[in-house]
Amino acid sequence: MDMVTSSRAPRAVVTFVTPAEQQRVDALTGRGCVTVHRENLDQVLSDLRTHAVSAVIVSVSRYQQHYAPSVARLVREFPRVPAVALLSAYETRSSAALLSLGEHGVRTLVDTRDPAGWRELRSLVNAETPGSIDNLAIRTLRNDLATARSSSVRFFDTLFTVPRSMTTVQQLARYIGVVPTTLMSRFYRAGIPAPKKYLAAARLVRAAHLLENPGSSITQVSFLMEYSSPQSFSRHVSGILHMGAAEFRRRYSGEQMLEHMRQSLVLPYRQQLQTFDPFASPPQWLVQRRPDSERVAAPD
Description:
The chain is of the alpha/beta class. The protein contains 16 helices and five strands. The protein has a five-stranded parallel sheet with strand order 2-1-3-4-5, with helices on both faces.
């Protein structure tokens, strides 16, 4: 199966497992997850550098001692991506393989010789990652806006659920079903920073999180975030934070960039955001005063 490249695609789990295990793993995945099977660990490392991967599964049966440097590199360069050892059959070399995997940083073992192990693996590959930056951002901002209108909260949820390919406020407006000029006008009238500032900040939160993996270069993250070039990404960072991409990487983790977004764009405007509705529907009195045959949605 080919790697999915669209940004808000199902979570990708990359495997290095036996053919029999491939079939079982495929049967476990739901609509929110896609498995990508590779024939060697170099391919797995390539996927980690060029795609957003939620987990890696390494078969104990396929593991050989000469793979140890690749496993160590995988764990070292991509610490944010869980690595799982899969044990489906015990062989004479299984103990040595398990010991080597553990020594080189693989901390999670799923033993599927018992049916409960397959259930555990199903939960692992299909579960939303509670520690993902998108989920953390949504939880944090919902807490900041606990008493705000649901439509205001929904806007911030959307910032962290849209595809990475959504790079402009015009695209965002169309995505949420609002005319772009109308969306910008609503923010202006409410005394809130322009929506493009929120979208840009959310994108930098995601980029900073990806850059936490030492194995991900600025160039690779630039393309993962769908900037036209590394130079475009650097200009974007400079325009918002007045620093280059390399300094951005040194200074900001995903959580630190989220905190910057909160302090600059959310908390100072919390009062306005309490009643803000970026999806504003027409006033009820305007709808009710028209005969049924004449009722239309007020234009955005």
